[in-house]
Amino acid sequence: MAWNEPGGGNQGDKDPWGNRNDEGPPDLDEAFRKLQANLSQMFGGSRTGQGGGGGTARPFNAALFGLLGLVLLLIYFFLGVYQVDQQQRGVVLRFGEAQDEIILPGLHWNAPIIDQVLIENVTRVRSRPHDSEMLTEDENIVKVKMTVQYVISDIKSYALKVREPEKSLFQATESALRHVVGSTEMHEVLTEGRATLGLEVKDRIQTYMNNYGTGIQVTQVNIDETAPPDAVRAAFDDVIKAREDEVRLRNEADAYANQVVPEARGDAQRLLEEAQAYKERVIAQSRGEAERFNKLYKEYSLAPEVTKTRMYIDTMESVMTNSTKVMIDVDGGNNLLYLPLDKIMEQSQSGKNNSQPEASSGPNYGNVNESRSRRERRQ
Q1: Can you state the angle between helices 233-302 and 368-378, rounded to 10 degrees?
Q2: Could you give all domains of the chain from N- to C-terminal order, each with its CATH number?
Q3: pLDDT of 191-224, one tens digit each?
């Protein structure tokens, strides 16, 4: 029968603690002494007898405590080993006092209880959104949504000088945005002034961060959205559309002016050149006429009658050549006018081809010398 079954007839059966079933619960002191005796044998101690007193517990206690101390020392050592990644930097607090050295990437060891190591990623770009309503210079309210991107530039300042650097960044962003928007008109904030707004806010936030000593470097400020209040959004949309139409019309006018002005300047230059050419041509013709008249005057002074007759004949020849009428002299009757239609048509066609008639040309006096020679031969 098992030791724990009731009603066993064998009173000599004992439980696992060496006690009889009728003696009640086991004695803890006895169990502890047995465990101590077994451990003493394992570490070289002598087994104690029941009669008492024979074994020694001091060697066992010293070895046990030495083993436990070695284990605790190893655990303490391994707890102080840590690794810093390439993107991280750290600072050590020894008894709460910051050390001068900066923990660089690699494997390091510090006393776990004595030293406290603060490690942060200094290369990761952090982003913090910001949304607020601001009052502009012309006393209008605008909604501005922006994102501030920053990195940790000084790990010691970031970890020790300011308790909550991100909260300081939020307050600096609020102050910088309020200052910049408050000194700008609303239409600039909503339209073409957004890029300038982001640059000015970034510079002012960085100035605040440097003054606070937070160790934060602001890399970029992105203006995500600028909008008027919802109650007047439709009216502002109409105003912005009108301004965009104004800009578009100005651009179209400038494009038209850039196209027309060069053409007008070219036409003006062409007219100036034509006027100059006409001036030179008229002067040259006038000088030629004057020179020819001087020569004719010399001939006229030598033979007036011959010169007058020749001039008359040349004049009649030029007049009759340009006339479309033919006069027929009939003896004993009236003169007859004859209109040659074929010649008229030919002259009209030739007149169309020669659209620019030459300047007024006088009678041809080129044969004066020839008529003079004929007169001299007859004499």
Answers
A1: 10
A2: 81-121 (no CATH), 126-228 (3.30.479.30), 305-379 (no CATH)
A3: 777 888 889 999 999 999 999 888 899 999 998 8
